[in-house]
Amino acid sequence: MSIDIEATINERIKISPFFSIQVDESTDVSDLSIFLVIVRYLNANELEENLLLRYPLTKRCTGEDIFNAIQSYFCENEMDWAKCCGVCTDGGKSISGCYKGLRGHFKIVAPHVTWSHCCIHRQSLAVMPLPDSLKEVLNQYVKDVNSLRLIQLIFVWRHGHPTYYATFAHRSEMSFVRTYTHKIVCTETRSSYIF
Question: Can you tell which superkingdom this protein's organism belongs to (predicted)?
Answer without folding.
Answer: Eukaryota
